[in-house]
Amino acid sequence: MASSKGPNQKIRYRTCLRNTIYDALRNRAGWTETENDVDWDFVWADIPWMKEHFDSLRLEENQRVNHFRNHYELTRKDLMVKNLKRMKRQLEKEGKTSEASKYDFFPVTFILPNDYNIFVEEFKRQPNSTWIAKPIGKAQGRGIFLFNDLKDLREWKKANEQRNTQQYGKKEEEVEAYIAQRYIENPYLIGGKKFDLRIYALVTSYAPLTVWLYRSGFARFSNMRFSMLKDNLGDVAIHLTNVAIQKQAANYDKDQGCKWELKSMKLFLISKHGLEAANNLMHDIQMLILRSLLAVQKVMMNDKHCFELYGYDVMIDNDLKAWLIEVNASPSLTADTSQDYQLKVFKSQFYISAQNLVGWNARRHV
Question: How confident is the model at residue 54 (pLDDT cuts 50, 70, 90)?
């Protein structure tokens, strides 16, 4: 890490994580770990720690923490869609129709149960389409299911309401919210298998917006050949690329994993479609990330003490169009294979070093 700091300086860091972030932190010269919840220079925290401690902290000039206060404006599935739709409407209202038209990178989405009646109307307009339902606050593929028949959703809605009422005493309007999203039925396939891209973006400020893109992301593959047959809609190993799901597949290879480095993916696309098409796709992905950040810029509580590492999940269809699936506030930095470990340790070192690029100066502990 390039630094103009003196040789006696020590930076005190705290993290509850034990993955590649921890390894990157403890291997940095001049950095020392602390368990103190208050006296530190740099914290890489999980969401529960933020909820418990952040509002009670009075941060000093030197302190940095890895989440913005309301990071969920982009990372909660329903709020992400609301903010993207709001940004598009605002641009249209301002007469910026050309820019508004470029906010077409997320699938048609409804929030359930609030938008249930509106969703039903849309479903009936295209009765043969397939939809994917996702709980707004869960990760790693939990609670996700596909459907192409309204009776499947009605049965889910009834069961969900009954389950929540029995277990938690919740009223109907308080049951767990889901999003229903038009399923991308024509994903780009390699070897007959579906994949998505995990792209990392580091935001160090929202005012002005300052973002660093990490070039070495990766593709996450399904272990199963893709199929849109109705009998296969319930097989999450075919349709979801989450590593947590794929690890459960009988043919999962724990040594090889199910990831492919982004640079290898780009070389494959160049070989199939040419350099210009591959570059255009990568540019579209960069602009997708930038426009999503612009959509939440005005609602985000900017704080000079905060930064955020976002994990973008992007899918490509067979027309080489990029689709934003979701954005993660705490993207997994746990490695599955030795190659994955090297990739993520290097990436973690990059994120930590990026703090110096924006002029962060920690205090001295001699």
Answer: confident
Residue 192 Ramachandran class (φ > 0 left, ψ -120 to 50 alpha, else beta): left
Q: Which phi and psi (to 5°) does residue 361 adopt?
A: -125, 115
Q: DSSP secondary-structure letter at 78? A: H
Q: Each residue of 249-267: pLDDT tens digit?
A: 767 777 677 889 999 999 9
181 in Cβ contact with 108 (< 8 Å) = yes
Tell whether the model's pLDDT for residue 301 goes beyond 90.
Answer: yes
- CA 49, 52, 58 angle in degrees (round to 5)? 95
Tell me the Cα Rg of the chain.
22
Report d(CA 197, CA 199) in Å as an integer. 6
Pick from 56, 54, 82: nearest CA to 68: 54
Strand partners, 300: none
Which segments of the chain does DSSP mark as H helices, in order?
20-26, 47-53, 72-75, 77-93, 97-101, 116-125, 150-168, 236-239, 243-246, 262-273, 275-297, 338-357
